[in-house]
Amino acid sequence: MPLFDLPLDQLRQYAPAVPEPADFDAFWRATLREAAARPVLVDVRPEPTDLRLVDSWDVTFAGFAGDPVRAWYTRPSGVDEPLPVVVEYVGYGRGRGLPHERLTWPVAGYAHLLMDARGQSGQYGVGDTADPHGAAPGGPWPVTRGILAPEGYYYRRLITDAVRAVQAARALPGVDPQRVVAAGNSQGGGLALAVAGLVPDLAALMSTAPFLCHVQRAIEITDAAPYGEIVNYLAVNRDAESAVRRTLSYVDGVCFARRACAPAHFAVGLRDTVCPPSTGFAAYNQYGAANGSAEPVARTMHVYPFNGHEHGDATHVRRQLRWLAGVLAEPAPAVPLADGAALVG
After folding, report:
1. What is a GO molecular function of this protein (predicted)?
2. What is the DSSP pairing of strand 41-47 with strand 54-62?
3. How far apart are CA 132 and CA 69, in angstroms?
4. Which residues contact 327 (CB under 8 A, 6 or more apart)?
């Protein structure tokens, strides 16, 4: 795939005025308040993995509307002290898989909570979490379920699950609740970014090729799925454009990025048609801009000029490992709690 988006010098300055609803903060505050009314941990049980160096648990926590959400909790075997925890979110069409599939973070010495994606099992990986809220009007794909109104939209539920995963991680044994990191790639990167905008006291964010950023532009410049699924829906439902654009404005990663406080590590591939680089830069360039602090938030962006959605692969993971070790070795900065900043603790 050749370069198709803006030149890199323009990307580094690209900070579009992505519109956000007047009730954006109120919408998410009410959504998360309702979820927080329930105890977060439902069940934690040991999960045999046949691996000697890590221990795993099958975790169930209460997500949106109290729905049970599954996750794997894994940590280095024989380590008793509280550890920083990486809460990881999976890509589009994936489930949590099996506990031995993602071992980078526990092998590196971290606790690791991998959240399942409700109702997405079967396309790329196995999942165990149902989505019992499929009645709202919209298309058949996750990104179009309930897309005609924000209240019934699929990503309202999934983002709420993602915030609750942080709360569940903090309640797990062997976790240092002051050192929680949100991480993910593609859809997972978009969820991690949303969490960074909704949870004020994360220790760090790692968001790679984030999905759901500057969505209005994405659906105009790429036909690749998942954005292409929105395009296909609108190609049939021609009178739905206004309602769809309004719904998407409530989950746009740029809006969450503006409110974020945590040190952040981003990456994009310049040949990425799945999550175009301008959409990731739109979030990165406005990260922390409206979080209530007079000080800029520490952030870094890695660019892979010759890569697409695979970005930097193992090279990038190594950069994440080194960056996170440095961030967690430093004292955590004070978190501003001004109105309009991050929304939940």
Report:
1. carboxylic ester hydrolase activity
2. antiparallel
3. 11
4. 203, 204, 263, 298
- Dihedral of the CA atoms 257, 259, 265, 270 (nearest 10)? 20
End-to-end Cα spacing for the chain: 42
**Which residues partner with 57 through β-bridges?**
46, 73
**Whose CA is closest to 269, among 320, 208, 192?**
208
Measure the CA–CA gap between 92 and 187, rounded to whole angstroms.
Answer: 5
Task: Please name the fold of domain 8-329.
Answer: Rossmann fold (3.40.50)
Contact yes or no for 282/258 (Cβ under 8 A): no
Contacts of 215 (CB under 8 A, 6+ apart): 227, 230, 248, 249, 251, 252, 279
What is the per-residue pLDDT across 13-69, written as a single tens digit (0 to 9) for each? 999 999 999 999 999 999 999 999 999 999 999 999 889 999 999 999 999 999 999
110 annotated as a binding-site residue? no
User: DSSP string of 300-329?
Assistant: EEEEETT--TTTTHHHHHHHHHHHHHHHHH
Q: How many residues does the chain have?
A: 345
* pLDDT single digits (tens) 197-235: 999 999 999 999 999 999 999 999 999 999 999 999 999
Task: Answer yes or no: are the C-beta atoms of 27 and 160 closer than 8 Å.
Answer: no
- Tokens standing for residue 184: 């993910």
- Is the whole-model pTM more than 0.85? yes
Joined together, the tokens standing for residue 69 give 């959400």
How do strand 175-185 and strand 111-115 relate by DSSP bridges? unpaired
- The C-alpha atoms of residue 87 and residue 192 are separated, in whole angstroms, by 8
